[in-house]
Structures are given as structure tokens and as C-alpha cells.
Amino acid sequence: MKRREFLTGAAVAAAATLVNPLKALSFPTVFPHGTTIYKPEKCFGGYTVFGTEVESEGTVLIDMNGNVARQWKNVCQAEHPPKMLKGGFLAGAMRPAPEKKGRVWADPDSTDFVVVDWDGKVLRRVPRAGLHHDYQFEGNPAGYHTPAMPLDNYKGKVLILSHKFTHNQYISDKELYDDYLVEVDADNNVIWDWVASEHFDEMDFPLDFKKTMYKYPTFSMTRTPGRKGGDWIHVNAASYLGPNKWWDEDKEKYAVFNPENIIISCRQTNTNFIIDKKTKKVVWQLGPDFYSDSVWEFGGKQYKRALSKLGQIIGQHHTHMIPRGLPGEGNILVYDNGGYAGYGKRNPGAPVGWSDARRDYSRVIEFDPRTLKVVWEHSAKQMGMRNKYQFYSDYVSSAQRLPNGNTLITNGAVGQFQEVTPDHEIVWEYISPYYTENGKYNLVYRAMRVPYDYIPQLDKPTEVKVTPPDNTTFRIKAG
After folding, report:
1. Burial grade of 214 (CB within 10 A; 0-12, 13-18, 19 or more)
2. What's the superkingdom here (predicted)?
3. Which has the minimum average pLDDT: 22-26, 98-102, 179-183, 204-208?
4. Is 6 a residue whose pLDDT tops 50?
5. How far apart are CA 298 and CA 245, in angstroms?
6. Distance between CA 392 and CA 412 in Å, rounded?
7. At a CB cut-off of 8 Å and minimum separation 6, what does 88 contact?
8. What CATH number was assigned to the domain covering residues 3-454?
């Protein structure tokens, strides 16, 4: 089965849960788009911004009823993710020319990083930044709203996740499409950087893992014309830890949680790392294995079975520490995709050992970064569904903790956004209607919610409840 055929099936499976997930177990080809569920009294009301995978559509801002409030068609044209700042400012990638889609730092074929105002005027530009997957502004560690640290400073330092072409004989004999973190000051001068391959020896990978990686380092064509590279680790999220209770409690004991340190999610290796900002060393690692005999060590203590109780994480996205001012602050929040990732011994599902870890459902997990104890988990099982694949996005996706304690989840492969309560009730749902012309998929990398007051250019919209019909009695009229 081709990847897009699989995703189409996954989209239909997700659509089957739109109205009554306990009764909807079929795979329809016709289903609604836009806002399909909305319970205003249970939601954190605001605007939601997301980038489409359609080059001509760019970035879209919607209200809770799914109405398009604004669209920037030249920002994040199939690049990601756009972010909304307080004041009606939008950040993201902009192509200097239609063909310049690259994701390599300082490369002439790469996109620019920009901040534009409500009317689309560029207020800040980092030329040829080649950003991919994530970036953060000074004063807001995770890139989304928290009452304690509004996302409102685009003029200061910016952390950008980009790429560099490198070589490292211990990783592979092939050229690497390496992940590159770079921090620039207000004048776009580089003041800090980090290259993933230079810290390979600090990453704890099993021998079989490294052997397979050497032969098959996810080598493929990049967005730079004519260049291939091994996307060996595939970092898809990077954020500051930010102020947190662990650091406040004991700066020596919890030195790894220094607010300036950076946490990254590495999809292809099923790992998450914390990077010490001053030394650039990896000082905290989660993954790649979560077996019953795997031992988690932290602060001089061993936590037996902590890894197995947390459960195998596969192909995860948007790993970050929940920012101060939000319920669960200090815990780690992860969209654990499942799907396929990793390196290891060959098996029937992975004949050469590439992407040997596989699972056909997703979950969102929140856990204590010291002990790995699960604080909250959301999946089809927690929603009372029989089939785990009814909550599933094998790649992209995200989870944002909201001020009211709910979580905004992007099931990105199927273009589905859901706001869920701590008790797993879906109180808002939206299905993206922006499909690619050829691929026929509505992928969204990450959707983010901002309060109404982030957009002073608009009056607060009237909220209208959306109550879907019962799937079992709903009919499409003939004719």
C-alpha cells in the first residue's frame, strides 16, 4: 500500500469518530469538514492558526466556528509551522522566490524566516534561514500562549531549527542532512549554534541501532536541488525549557532543567534530548528503548520499569516542557505518533532494520521528567474506543496545553484538530478542508490556539454551539 493511500484510509478512520465515536466503526468516504463539534462553555475560546500543505493557500487563521478570519498565502507555503504573536503578527517561512523551498541554513535556495504584520508587511526577516519544524522567540519557551509569558516579542533573540550538510564517519559513510540549531540576536547575528552530529558520542544508542543507521541513515532527496542527505535523526521540535518548578526547587539537583536549556524531539531515532545551553552537551535522554529491563537513571537514582511503564515512544512530535502558568507546568508533553521509526535488527515489518519500531495508533502523554511517571495520557483507549487506530496520525502532529486545562491536539496526517478535556471529552473539533491538488490529503503539521486578545484587529466573534447529528441516523438526501 502506498503512503498516501494509507493516509487516506487513516483520514477516513478519523472521520468515522467525528460524531459518536462509540458507534462509528466504519470507514466512510463522505464526511463533514470545518468545525464539527463545539461546546463553548467547555472550551478555551480563541483563534486557531495552522499552515496548510497547499502552496497556494499558505497559512490560515480560523475562529471557533471554523470561519476564516485571515489568510496569509505567502507565509508557510507547505512549510511549517506558522505561529501567531500577540498584536496580530504572524511568524513563519517565506520564499524569496517560488522555487526557493530549501531548509538549509545560509543556502541560497532556502526560505527566509519572517515576521509579518496583520496586513502582511514584513517586520523582521532572517534571510536564508531554511527553518524546518520549529523556532522560538525570546521570552516564550515553547512557542504558544501562556498567561505567564505571552508570545509577544519578535524583536529579540530567536532560536531556529534548520539543517546543514555534514559528514560523520561514525554515523554513516553518506553525506548527512544534519539538524542545526542556531540562535540569533535582535540584529540576526549568530550568538549560539549546535550541530546534532557533533554530539553523536553523547547519545546512547545500542550497537544494532548504530549498525543499521550507518547503512540506512534515512538517505533521501532534500529540498535543496540536486542534494541528497541522510536525515539520520530528524529533529522535529526544539524549545527552551523555560522557567520551571524543578529548577526553582533545587538548582543543583535539577541542573539539567536550567530554563535556558533546550529540549528536542528526534523522530527517526525515537529519542528526546535536553541540551545544556552552556556546554552544548546532551544531559538528558529518553529512548530509544523502553523495555522491561531498561533502567531509567536520574539524579543518582534508578527507576526500574519506569521506561516500560511509560511505554515505547515511536516517531514522536512536539516534545516540550509545559510552560509556566499552565496546568501541568514542568511536565513533558509529547505527541507519540506510533507509525514507524527507529533503527535496529531486521524483522518482517522492517526487512533491513530501518524504522523497525512500529505501532498502528497514537497517544498524547504527559509525564514527570525526573521519574517518567505518567501524569496524563490520551488515546483511543482513554476515549472508550474499541479500536486503537481510531486515534492515529503516523507523522506530523502536536499537543498544546491550554490555560483552562484542556489540550489542543493536532492529528496532523488527517487534518484533524481536537480540543479535549482532562477527562478525554472532545469539546471542539475541526477538519481541514485544504487538500493538495495531486496528493488528495489535508495534512497539517501543527495547529496552535491563541486568545482572542492576540488579534486586536478583529472584534471577538459570536460563538455558536455546534452539535453534530447522530451518525447512525444521519442521511444524505438523494437528488
Report:
1. middle
2. Bacteria
3. 22-26
4. no
5. 17
6. 9
7. 117, 118, 454, 455, 456, 457
8. 2.130.10
Other CB atoms within 10 Å distance of the CB of residue 407: 23
Query: Is pLDDT of 264 > 60?
Result: yes
26 bridge partner residues? none
Q: Let me know if 145 is exposed, middle or buried by CB neighbors in 10 A (0-12, 13-18, 19+).
A: buried
pTM of the model: 0.93
Question: Phi/psi of residue 122, each to 5°?
Answer: -75, 120
pLDDT digits 0-9 by tens, 87-119: 999 999 999 999 999 999 999 999 999 999 999
Instruction: Break the chain into its structural domains and give their ranges.
Output: 3-454
Q: What is the mean pLDDT of residues 256-281?
A: 98
pLDDT reading at 4 higher than 90: no
Q: Hey, which residues does 286 pair with through a beta bridge?
A: 272
When pLDDT is cut at 50, 70 and 90, the band that residue 27 belongs to is low
Residue 367 neighbours by CB under 8 Å, 6+ apart: 310, 331, 332, 334, 373, 374, 375
Beta strands in 140-213 (DSSP E): 158-168, 172-184, 190-195
Kind of pairing between the strands at 235-240 and 262-266: antiparallel
Closest-CA residue to 31 (of 340, 320, 429) = 429
Comparing C-alpha atoms, which of 272, 254, 276, 253 is closest to residue 264? 272
Cis geometry, peptide bond prior to residue 288 (ω within 30 degrees of 0): yes
Residue (of 463, 430, 313) closest to 377 by Cα position: 313
Give the integer Cα–Cα distance in Å for 364 and 463. 28
* Type of residue found at 139: G
Indicate the burial class of 349 (C-beta count within 10 angstroms; 0-12, 13-18, 19 or more). Answer: exposed
Cα-Cα-Cα-Cα torsion 291, 293, 294, 295, nearest 10 degrees, comes to 150
Q: What are the grid coordinates assigned to 15, written together?
A: 472521520
Task: Let me know the angle formed at the C-alpha of 457 by 451 and 458, rounded to the nearest 5 degrees.
Answer: 65
Look at residue 427 and tell me whether its pLDDT is greater than 50. Answer: yes
* Residue listed under C-alpha cell 503516523: 394
Residue 89's pLDDT is 98
Report angle CA 88, 91, 97 to the nearest 5 degrees: 125
Q: Which of these, 39, 248, 46, lies nearest to 151 by C-alpha position?
A: 46
Give dist(CA 65, CA 90) in Å, integer. Answer: 21
Q: What 3-state class would DSSP assign to 118?
A: coil
Residue 50 pairs in a beta bridge with: 60, 447
